[in-house]
Hints:
There is one protein chain. A five-stranded parallel sheet has the order 7-6-5-11-10. The protein has a five-stranded parallel sheet with strand order 14-13-12-15-16. The protein has a three-stranded antiparallel sheet with strand order 1-2-3, with no helix packed on it. Residues 1-23, 37-93, 520-550 and 556-579 have low confidence and may be disordered. By secondary structure, the protein is of the alpha/beta class. 42% of the residues are buried. Strand 13 (365-368), helix 13 and strand 14 form a beta-alpha-beta unit. It is built from 22 helices and 18 strands. The chain has helices at 25-44, 120-123, 138-154, 176-179, 182-188, 220-234, 252-265, 270-286, 299-305, 312-323, 334-339, 347-357, 375-385, 392-395, 398-401, 408-421, 432-443, 454-462, 469-479, 545-548, 572-576, 581-587; strands at residues 64-66, 75-78, 84-86, 107-109, 129-134, 158-160, 195-196, 201-202, 205-206, 210-212, 236-242, 291-294, 365-368, 389-390, 424-427, 448-450, 505-509, 514-517. It comes from Panicum virgatum.
Amino acid sequence: MGQPRRRGYPHGHHHRCPRRIALPAAALALLFLAVSLLSVSLLSAPPLADPRTGLATSSSRRFLRRDPTNGSGGELEGTESGQAFNVATHGWIGQDDLWHSKLASNFYGCCNSSSKYLDSSITTQPERYLIVVTSGGLNQQRTGIVDAVVAARILNATLVVPKLDQTSFWKDSSNFSEIFDIDWFISFLAKDVKIIKEPPVKGGKVMKPYKMRVPRKCTPRCYLNRVLPALLKKHVIRMTKYDYRLSNKLDTDLQKLRCRVNYHALRFTDPIQELGERLIQRMRKKSRYFVALHLRFEPDMLAFSGCYYGGGEKERRELAAIRRRWRTLHIRDPEKGRRQGRCPLTPEEVGLMLRALGYRSDVPIYVASGEIYGGEDTLAPLKALFPNFHTKETLSGDEELAPFLKFSSRMAAIDFIVCDESDAFVANNIGNMAKILAGRRRYFGHKRTIRPNSKQLYPLFMKRGNMSWDAFSAQMRIIQKGYMGDPMEITPGRGEFHANPAACICEKTSGNSVAKSIYRSNKEPANDTGIRKAVVGPPYPVYTDEEADGSDTEDDQDTTARGEMIDAEPDDDSVVRQEDPELEEILSD
């Protein structure tokens, strides 16, 4: 029996040489002729499509079936010929890489403040109160809450527990304490910012706030120049529509404060958390590992994207009707949008991507999504590729889900919990949930997080009918390299901070003896525990380079790393900023 191909190496490498057998010249000539005739016949035969995947098979007598005994899903078996071929030999991925990054153990989340960071009992000034009203869906509001804490720290003000958006497209009447553990939030951040539950009272009456709004990506200097004077005069400031109102680039202590809020202080209430954990347990009973997918294939998303998915005149008519709700929404070239990678993958394309990466058909998949455009007809190809298909609705009983059904943010929180704890998470868009979960999963050990490289995948999907499955899979693995949630995929400081919290991720070095932040190259002294302390800077507040030159708001045109392994797409807020406020709320999560 021949030696098996070693997993993870290209053809022709790291193989043992077979023993040579001497043959007579006549036999060699006959053998050469037979091989030549066989080659011609194989080359002339058209490729046949796999009935499960729609892809051409490698030969006319082979259709692809996952080997159920192979836990990695790396083997594809030819059921009629009896010969197996290994798709894991192409590209970057190996048996364990489906669920883990080999480099993840070298990094860990680190959000402790520096020795120069003062306690809130020292920094908080009297008669300074900040009230913030967030905007959008659950995850857009989460970014507002995180930045509100940092803004209060910049202003040395007391923060009133943020007010959630109850009037937008999502129409969720939940308040902060019905989604997040309010007491934990206040106590955990006590040394950072003083937080109170209700607006301040003076003389038995609630102090009337002065309403204002700051520009997008306002720097600390912007807050000190624009907000602080009003705060000193009026004492209570109420900032509305508060989302992405703080610069993406801050000094390290403020970035670490962002991480303490986002990854530690914001905990869901017990009813939400407990149901989420029960759903995770039910997924784990089905398999050791599971995949979670934020599908984001709802009618509003497709209508806004302007993309076309082959549904004919019916699709064009239905999505055009949705687009007419917003007069400012211009018509886009559907084909151009697909070429530029601005369209969500279809459920079938997501399934094909996962199968080509090596996830086998019996892997349980949890889908977080609203109403899918096209309903069951659209989902059918994904369910055929992954029959072990689940949602919060299928996993929970009617009585379990009933208390949450009327509240979109609480329903979204349940999906958030399950997606966060999944072994592999797939984000099919660039919305806030995708960003926050990507950053959170980086912070807590670089758990496998897959972002479809849509721009490069588009031509691959267009020609898939003319490719063998192993050729398609090999190309998929090459294209997705750098989009799998591995450490250092994105240059520190690039991209949206919520998706790439580089200031809060430290790298172990020298056999775990010391560690350093990946955010900056400064050498930092190690303390007695062997962990490097944060760089000591000038007295607070500290301004970054773009702030020191007098800039008031962040010019963040280059937030994605050009020429690096990251989508060259603008933030989703920049796409809709000039369009319509309601659009932004709909598309944010």
